[in-house]
Amino acid sequence: MSKDIIEQMDGATLQHGPDNDRIYLMSIGQADPQQLAEQLKTLAEEKGYTKIVAKIPASAEKAFLGKGYEKEAAIPGFYNGREAALFMCFYPDPSRKHAKDADEIDSIITLARNMKDKPCPQLPADMEIITCGPEHAREMSSIYKQVFPTYPFPIHDPGYIRETMQSHIRYFGILCNNRLVALASSEMDRENRNVEMTDFATLPGYRGQSLAILLLERMEQNMQNEGIRTAYTIARAASPGMNITFSRAGYAFSGTLVNNTNISGGIESMNVWYRPLSPSA
Fold first, then answer.
1. Co-location of 201 and 259 in the same domain
2. In which element (H, E) is residue 195 found?
3. Are residues 93 and 134 in the same domain?
4. Burial class (CB in 10 A: 0-12, 13-18, 19+), 200
5. What is the distance between the alpha carbons of residues 120 and 99, in angstroms, rounded to a whole number?
6. Residues in the chain with pLDDT < 70?
7. CA-CA-CA-CA torsion sign (52, 231, 201, 115)
8. Which has the closest alpha carbon to 232: 43, 124, 76?
9. Are 197 and 240 a contacting pair, CB within 8 Å?
10. 126 CB burial (10 A radius; 0-12, 13-18, 19+)
């Protein structure tokens, strides 16, 4: 099976392919919203994709609604702390629109919200949080392979990790006895001053110590120093741990992307959580 690709369409940036069986509009760029909404539907029909998910500024919502898209989630303050991003979705195959585990997802959201005020732990004395460098890429890719059999972006490839380190992603890790045991990344959109907190992975023997929330705390401090205004995540909806992590860190739930992402061997729904990192966001 060929991998999903990232390409341009009239100034917009999109990812599409058979792995996720969808089109993901990552950035609308300078494209005309009304034309683009229709072009994406045409591409989906040509390729046989069963979902389109378009991340767009709120000002483009009307154009996508007019083409039959529906809003599944939002990130207030995504664009420089001022304008929201909306996730507008269209389903060429209506069966993909319904999550079989919808009740479980709702229960996890409720559980996560109820954990909001739970205090955060201290970093164990034998561990250290670091900013990862190119020298860590091979070990990082090995961890990602262990934790995620499949993933929507090629983090199993050390070359991809090194390349993105040089452009827009800052990777963080936790060392125990000079060995990486947990990872996460901050994928920065410097132009719009937002960041996706993502790629969280903890080796099985080190889970249950709240390492993800400790990483997230350091990542937020780092991003605030970079002038980032809004942080968000797109977390596996069926994973209690990650949803709880973001709720405990003060993030607000803002929607579920249904049957959205090929991760850990199958298509899963994803929950969107966000948090302002500056008072103006």
1. yes
2. strand 194-202
3. no
4. buried
5. 32
6. 1-2, 279-281
7. negative
8. 76
9. no
10. exposed
